[in-house]
Amino acid sequence: MSHDIVEKPVENGESIKRGIYILPNLITAGSLFAGFYSLVATLNADYKTAAIAIFISAVCDGLDGKVARLTGSTSKFGVEFDSLADLVAFGVTPAFLMYAWALKPFGRIGWVAAFLFLICAALRLARFNVQVDTVESKRFIGLPTPASACMVAATVMLFYHFGWPSSYKKLAILGLIYLLAFLNVSSFRYNSFKDPALIRRQPFGFLLLAVVLLIVVVAEPAIMIFSVLLLYILSGPIDFVVTWPRRRRLEKAVHKGHEAVHRDETA
């Protein structure tokens, strides 16, 4: 979900004649390739490699938009290409991986869960494209598709790390897929980590904490990546619950204001 700045249309088709920007779209193609390679690995029952390929795709997806903005090479073509690549890499690929790895024994319920994950990812991407110019850049509405796909990959990696078979607690895996699908199309807000304040000067303790966190992740990547992603996924519902009283107060204040205006108009 990158390339979120669309270039203004140029008269007489000039933007088409100028061609497309190679570097950011090449990175997007790399994301699409990693997603496709994950499908191939899944077909060959190499689920660990398939999970790693999803992570690589997510890294490329995070880079293409940043490269486009830094080089001033954002374009409408890049937006559309990136969205299509995301649907494959973070919709089709993780759905197919999870079905082949753990959901197939459930029969109809299993493939319905995989399809639900896919359709919700498609709806999430479509909604993002429509709302990109109307919502704040610091927050995503609904769980981002790369995060849900990486959670699928992290679950596979965690099972391989502990040597668990995919049949182990497979009801929990089925529940996870339904949860991710719901969160994709929910109205929960998630941090986009696009706040400029994050790259400004920070206290020394912040750097020390980041270094310690990096060391822990490198020491136990499967456990820590799964844990970090789980915390991020739960952050949306937790934020919704925590901010509920404040939102209710604001809604009541707005409602009272409208009632006061209505009384003044009818007086």
In short:
With 267 residues, this protein is mainly alpha-helical. The chain contains 10 helices and 2 strands; from the N terminus they run αααααβααβααα.
List its traits:
mainly alpha; 267 residues; 10 helices; Four Helix Bundle (Hemerythrin (Met), subunit A)
Describe the structure.
- With 267 residues, this protein is mainly alpha-helical.
- It has a single domain, classed as Up-down Bundle (Four Helix Bundle (Hemerythrin (Met), subunit A)).
- Helices cover 73% and strands 2% of the residues.
- The protein is built from ten helices and two strands, in the order H-H-H-H-H-E-H-H-E-H-H-H.
- The chain has helices at residues 14-17, 22-43, 47-70, 76-103, 108-131, 145-162, 170-184, 204-219, 221-242, 244-266, and strands at residues 139-141, 189-191.
- Strands 1-2 form a two-stranded antiparallel sheet.
- Helix 3 (47-70) runs antiparallel to helix 4 (76-103) and helix 3 packs antiparallel against helix 6.
- The protein is globular, with a radius of gyration of 21 Å.
- The termini are far apart.
- The model is unreliable at 4-14 (pLDDT under 50).
